[in-house]
Amino acid sequence: MTQSDYSKDLVVLVADKDMEHAVDGILSSRFQALGIRRISSDFFVHPHRDPGCLIDGHEFLRPFTNSCHHALVMLDREGCGQEPLSREALEEDIESRLRGSGWGDRAAAIVLDPELEIWVWSDSPHVASILGWSQRTPDLAGWLRNHGFLDHSTQKPDRPKEALEQVLKLARKPRSPSLYTQLAKKVSLGRCSDPGFSKFKRTLRSWFSESSR
Q: How many contiguous H segments (helices) and E segments (strands) does the chain have?
């Protein structure tokens, strides 16, 4: 089949609504920053969340092999049920199942290590603004360091979800999927050095570069 034979460019299976909003926000509004063309995509949230994406993602996506050009499976390592395995080992396991279920080399897995919130944390001023921390003292990085979430040798908290929850609680800002949409649309993609995000960008560029029209 050629690219034009598929009704959608991409189908994305994610573990929860937060992840859906984050990725959809990036794909819908930041495609130029990703270095890709505008694409058509469908999103699905696995009813069994991270373990479902890990174990059953290939079966969930099997019906879409002839209607979608490419597929992504995305989940957190924390909570997937196989935490002792590395991000790379989990991704290879999922991709092996996808290859065998009819996707061949048209699908990939992105495991966020330890979880989606690792993508939230960067030195962008938009992070503090969206999380409700603007004009507070100490600044966001200072507060994270003071409370043991960040040290001077790291750029991201070791416990990113816990850090986010504490910041939102103090800022009296509700946590909702729309928060991830705001972050996805505002924060510079170049500021995120997470390996999983780097793979996410590389994969999309290899599939949907401007020259692949």
A: 9, 4
